[in-house]
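Support request, please re-run this one:
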Amino acid sequence: MDRARLPALGSLRAFEAVARQGSLVAAASELNVTHGALSKQVRGLEDELGEPLFERRNRGLHLTPKGAWLAEKLGPLFGDLAQTMSEFHALDAGPQPLILSCEPTLCLRFLIPAMVDLEQETGIAVRVLAAGGPVDFVAQGFDLALRRQDFPLPAGVEALPLVEERMGPVIAPSLADAALSDLPRLHSRTRPDAWKAWTRGRKARFSGTDIQYQHFYLTLQAALAGQGVAMASVHMVATALEQGRLIAPHGFSPDWTQYVMLRPAGRASDGRVEALVEWLRARMARHLSL
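Re-run finished. Output below.
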């Protein structure tokens, strides 16, 4: 079929939606058309092509082999078309905000409270997603990822160093007069070895109970509430320390990991990324003096 005889784009789109959804009703809802209108478009495409694309049996639609082949080809084409139109409409909107994925507790305790300063001091628009673990920039839809590098660097990912990690026990001021060794130890399942790593090489002995929390954030909340002593990252409790809501009786020590900014390797230079990294380095370096 030559280009002059290509089927109408609307009928191809209707067929692709029905094939992907597996249902006329669901596809009609997605395209915001009536069930009858969508069915008519699909039948019109079948008439134009001269063969059926669906088998209609048992009150259901089942792709024919050639229908399945056509649906597989059209899916990526319509995905690319949607992306193209999205980029077209964004052309006059200026640079889009940088999408930054950040480990959840660091995001809640440090990054989000610092966002106003970041944007005022750098002029960079940043949108933050609280997420941890492996990164997939395409599938997850972000530009950068702030992580503690305690894992091998994935292929195709570049790491820009920010600042070292430092850990130490923290307590609420109400527990300042208590013996640290007698207090309940608050643990996080997301950093199960934090206490073990800190006590290695120290003579510290603890007789208090051990309390487990699912996430680091909850462990720090428990410390703020005076429930015991938590092993904390200085970068996550800096604001609470400055405000006097937590104290660190033994200070903070390196745990031999560091925070890094991850980005796709080989991507074209973006001055906003370099400016953001420099701002984060400077801001997080302040914490090391606490």
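The radius of gyration is 28 Å. The chain is about 40% helix and 20% strand.
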